Amino acid sequence: MSKRILVDCHTHIYTKRLVSLLRSRTVNPRIHTNSPDGSEKLAILPQEVSGGRTVGPQYWDVRNKVSFMNRHSIDISIVSLANPWLDFLDAPQAVTSAHECNADLEQYCCEATELFARAPGDSHVEAARRMKAFGIMPLAEGVDPTEIVKSLEAIASSPSLCGAILGSRGLGKGLDDPALEPVWAKAAEFGLVLFLHPHYGVGADASQPAGLWGTQDNGHVLPLALGFPFETAAATTRLILAGVFDRHPHLRLLVAHSGGALPILSSRLASCVAHDPHVCNRLHHDPRFYLGKLYYDAVAYGPEELEAVANIIGRADRYKAGATAPMAAKGAYTDKGVQRMMFGTDHPFFPPTREDGTVITDDQTETWRSVTENLEAISDVPAWSQSAKLGVFGQNAVKLFGL
Amino acid sequence: MSKRILVDCHTHIYTKRLVSLLRSRTVNPRIHTNSPDGSEKLAILPQEVSGGRTVGPQYWDVRNKVSFMNRHSIDISIVSLANPWLDFLDAPQAVTSAHECNADLEQYCCEATELFARAPGDSHVEAARRMKAFGIMPLAEGVDPTEIVKSLEAIASSPSLCGAILGSRGLGKGLDDPALEPVWAKAAEFGLVLFLHPHYGVGADASQPAGLWGTQDNGHVLPLALGFPFETAAATTRLILAGVFDRHPHLRLLVAHSGGALPILSSRLASCVAHDPHVCNRLHHDPRFYLGKLYYDAVAYGPEELEAVANIIGRADRYKAGATAPMAAKGAYTDKGVQRMMFGTDHPFFPPTREDGTVITDDQTETWRSVTENLEAISDVPAWSQSAKLGVFGQNAVKLFGL
């Protein structure tokens, strides 16, 4: 039995320059201190009502991430910028900022290496391998796609960067925008993993008089629990329907939150496509086939959810054009699907809270429930073999990212 | 082995009076003949761009439904009005129309009985038991909740009606509106099944510059495949978070499309609630517990989806307040969850189409793919026993609805 290696493929930071930029702004997204207690708040959405979420060093200080990793026995983290990314900037600013962010992310990984070298915790992984990062592309309205391709070239040549995170807006028209074709082509050529992550959710829905989330006080629960995975499902589906994976079969897309709402809706999607020949005829395969081409974090918080996602990924070949394979026996899909799933924490979001709901910010000794839940969810999937679980804990990520 | 009985709990009609009403209207929702080929189209949403879907006798003629049932060996159907329901009417009209619709639905079932008596097909179920219906409540802005309670009393006393279908808007503020408390109480008291069905979807999202569905031509795929189950998930979650199932533990809610996006997101929901003590403290149980109190149609089009839903329903007791049960062994949750699932077709939607995408309306001899897919999905769940499958095919519905 090989030793467990724990890789966190879904863990966020803000770079210090990005924090300064957000502090300097007077409209959202911005970091402000207008809260009653004077703490810094990050307000992301234009219509943010709560004033935003409390932020502190855990969002940008590398020492905090290193402490979190050692405390939870995380061997390797692949950090990524948290939202907002760069689509609130004008095109030249977005290009400049992407360049700066990628340099800062590389620097962040170097600083982490020094810290790990001094205090390795109980990890058997060498210091220089323990902190990697997704870079960022200048995806904002008006940016020339050649600038985005250039950012991918910069990422590919940056030793600690092994992909790029992106939201669902693209250049303003979403990810099914034909203008993004050179981006998919370049990412596939370089083997860079693109990490698709929700950003804006779907809550501000004009078709419901009281909005999709209504008027009852449910805190951030509905936009976070449902809005984010809805957005991810919509963006991923639009990529599939646009034929992106037909034209770029080697594109490596990692989908946040275990694919959001998409896996459980994929046969419904296939049925809707089958009843719309205009869409159906332009795709090479049944939509369910493409789910087997994607990668998924295991940030779903429950074993039944993870098992479902693995089964749905693993059955993909049944839906390849021309496939005649019958239903496989019980459990046959699991082993195949599970190879595309990988542990994540979503740190520093979902921090420990006190009884009254305030966030514990002096958290250097806390074990985070969001981490233990996602670890236990993997351990508890009844149908997964021990080696499948070791894959999800870290080996699948080691292989995908060449760690 | 008991004989298979096939019950369709998700099958729609329009009453002829409702069709006349929709034909008389000049704004959406309405039925019009402005299409190039002069066929009747039903345009439901205010912003309907495609002109609406082609409608014909299969939507209102009882002979068509009887033929469909006999052709697909469906023993019993519980028909329900399709959207739009009554929320486009003013309050007095909605009350009157609900009364008329419920009378017409009862009449529809009586007519079906006569037809079955004459031509029973191969069903062994007696004619008078084969057509049942969900009634409709006057859920529209400004309606006095006592009128809604009255409609439930009328439904309860109507021999062929065994529940009521409803969308997600309630009286305009959604289903978590405290004004609806007497409705939940009365439905629970009568044991009437409320069938929660999406209506408006979530597509018209102001937070995405190109809308959630973008600008590429994907026909109706995105709003149907994703928007509908998003809406269902949001509405069901809002009911849970509002404590409706804490106050009305005997409320019987049947959720369309296998719960839409909710089952796969339920552990994420639980995690978000756990991190928001304000919401968490007012609920009696972990949100996942409530999923075990609901009923689900099996309209998910794939065996892996159905298995996932059953597992997620079946684990609910693990999340009861104070529960200390460890993880059950592999498959232990399936048998419990599957008892709350029941076959449906969504007829007359998803009709057979020709190669060019036109709907086959002279379909009296066609086998519908949407039916065979949902039947095969049940048959193909590897983890389900034969008796569990017979339950989903019909016996669960017989028991729930007292058929």
From TrEMBL, chains A, B:
GO terms for cellular component: cytosol. Residues 7-403 form the Amidohydrolase-related domain. GO terms for biological process: secondary metabolic process. It holds the Pfam family Amidohydro_2. InterPro entries: ACMSD, Amidohydro-rel, Metal_Hydrolase. It comes from the Eukaryota. GO terms for molecular function: carboxy-lyase activity; hydrolase activity. Keywords: Decarboxylase, Lyase. The keyword Lyase applies. Belongs to the metallo-dependent hydrolases superfamily. This is Related to 2-amino-3-carboxylmuconate-6-semialdehyde decarboxylase. It comes from Sporisorium reilianum (strain SRZ2). The lineage of its organism: Eukaryota, Fungi, Dikarya, Basidiomycota, Ustilaginomycotina.
